Amino acid sequence: MNVVLRGWHVLAGLLGFFGVIIAVNAAFITLAVRTFPGEDVRRSYTQGLNYNETLAARRAQAALAWNISAAFEAGNVVITITDRDAAPVDGAEIEASLLWPTNARFDHDLAFTQTGPGRYAAAVSDMQDGRWRLRGRVQSSAGVGEFEANLTWR
Fold first, then answer.
1. Is the distance from CB of 84 to CB of 65 less than 8 angstroms?
2. What are the residue boundaries of the structural domains of the chain, listed by start?
3. pLDDT of residue 17
4. Average pLDDT for consecutive 10-residue bins of the chain (154 residues)?
5. Burial per residue of 3-24, b for 16 or more beta-carbon CB atoms within 10 angstroms, e otherwise
6. Which of 62, 73, 94, 126 has the fewest Cβ atoms within 10 Å of its own Cβ atom?
7. DSSP letters along 33-57, please?
8. 116 close to 126: Cβ distance less than 8 angstroms
9. Topology, domain 65-153
10. Tell me, what's the pLDDT at 80?
């Protein structure tokens, strides 16, 4: 049997080939954006507009000269806060979250209580092994400060 290659055969082959390529690319793009949209911080555009206020808040925090450290200890996230004279900062309110770098579904909001002078703890459970980012805000009568730390679970 003799098959003749005609123009519409070539056109159908090209359209089919590029149609499959475009469909696969669209599927990959959709899956990539759904699993990680690329934003580390919500409303980053608005934060950019308020950049001068952010800089003023950072200067105020630097004037406090707080030393904020964080670690995992016995199933807890422990934060220690000292001032410029190495005196503990007591009576602070802490809002913080443990963030899993690749998927916000695993993030944990933490509730801290003071367990000692300048020492605050929050219980954690259902943690994935690996590196976590702790991001939070401390407020006391002396002022307000923000902090970040990278912690490794197990």
1. yes
2. 65-153
3. 97
4. 89 97 96 76 76 89 93 94 94 94 87 96 90 94 92 88
5. eeeeeeeeeeeeeeeeeeeeee
6. 126
7. HHH--S-SSTTHHHHHHTHHHHHHH
8. no
9. Immunoglobulin-like (2.60.40)
10. 96
What is the dihedral sign for C-alpha 19, 20, 26, 27? positive
The answer to whether 137 touches 95, Cβ cutoff 8 Å, is: yes
pLDDT of residue 134: 96
Dihedral through CA 68, CA 69, CA 70, CA 71, nearest 10?
-170
Return the exposure string of 29-56: e unless at least 16 CB atoms fall within 10 Å of the residue's CB, then b.
Answer: eeeeeeeeeeeeeeeeeeeeeeeeeeee
**Could you say which DSSP state residue 141 is in?**
T
Name the amino acid, one letter, at 10. Answer: V
Taking the alpha carbons of 87, 98, 75, 71 in that order, is the dihedral positive or negative? negative
DSSP string, 70-123: EEEETTEEEEEEE-TTS-B--S-EEEEEEE-TT-GGG-EEEE-EEEETTEEEEE
End-to-end CA distance of the chain: 69
